[in-house]
Amino acid sequence: MKGKSVVTLDDLSTDQILDLLRKAEYIDSHRREVAHTCDGRVIATLFYEPSTRTRLSFETAMLRLGGQVIGFAGSQLASVTKGESIADTLKTVSNYVDVVAIRHPKEGAALVASQASSVPVINAGDGGHMHPTQTLADLATLQSRFGRVTDLTVGLCGDLTFGRTVHSLIETLCRFGNVRFVLISPNELTTPQYVLDRINATASCSYVEVRDLASVMGDLDVLYMTRVQKERFFNEDDYLRLRDTYILDEEKMALAKPDMAVLHPLPRVNEIAVEVDDDPRAAYFEQVKNGMLMRMALESSVVGDELPGYEEFANK
Ligand code: CP
Asked: Is ligand 1 within 6 A of the CB of residue 206?
């Protein structure tokens, strides 16, 4: 994986994804052993869009591996305000660091960045397109809850048009196979055709599109809730009309299987009532922790630093 940019998870083989899951498991139980893995390394976090979890976990991941962090959060502080292109920014910043994480509001920005950079670039979210490291966090959460990322009925609910985490997750689960997707959204926020095409092209996967959440609750192993993405709407009235279409509360949780897992990439607005946080099926804060562990696994891998003791652990 050394030197590899990750724009989508298609940039990684299935074995590499499984290896990252195993590395994250190792890191979680060997924090001290891995604390100097990336001594002398530097990551740049270039965030042209707001973020709490993704930026802070990319940065914490490098700090916990012994490396350091530079970057900006909010393009108003960078030379993009003077008209600098993404390509020129990457041609510059990649002289300073060993790896770059970039978030940008435009689809395709991470690909452009990776083509201009002399060091690996990790997509931290490009518009409504993809968010591969969120998917790594999601996979780690499924793995820890079910011991597998396949043979599941996965409901995805909310903004399936603009929700880049949804697109990344569906595409990746299709690679593992045997997933039945239940796509729950209003008519205005259905799943893009290119994502449906991916499911259709996977013999062992299928989907249904529905409007009502309560009627499918009992079928689901996983419910992946999403926020209606205000920042991607052209029209405020449409956002206000659609934002509270789905609210997961205790009443709906009573319809679900006893071992269903509720995931959400966060931030949430109203779509999961706070009362659900105390339900053991709520897995969304576990997802946050898994995001940091998976980013530690990914950062160390793309810069080419071995986690001390990992090889022996992996061969057990
Ligand atoms: N899940 C996620 O991408 O959260 P942030 O926008 O806070 O980074």
From this structure: no
Residues 102 and 164 in one domain: no
> Is the pLDDT reported for residue 316 higher than 90?
no
Place of tokens 């569906």: 170
Cβ of 267 closer than 6 Å to ligand 1, yes or no, is: yes
pTM listed for this prediction: 0.94
Percent of the chain as helix, strand, coil, to the nearest 5: 45, 15, 40
ipTM confidence: 0.98
User: In this structure, what CATH number is given to the domain that contains residue 43?
Assistant: 3.40.50.1370
Which residues form the catalytic set? 53-54, 82, 103, 131
CA distance 45 to 62: 11
Would the pLDDT of 75 be above 80? no
Q: Tell me: do 122 and 140 sit in the same domain.
A: no
Query: What is the distance in A from the centroid of ligand 1 to the CA of 302?
Result: 22
Instruction: Take atom 6 of ligand 1 and give the residue whose Cα is closest.
Output: 51
What residue numbers bound the domain in which 241 lies? Answer: 132-287
Q: Do the domain assignments include residue 2?
A: no
- pLDDT-based confidence at residue 74 (cuts at 50, 70, 90): confident
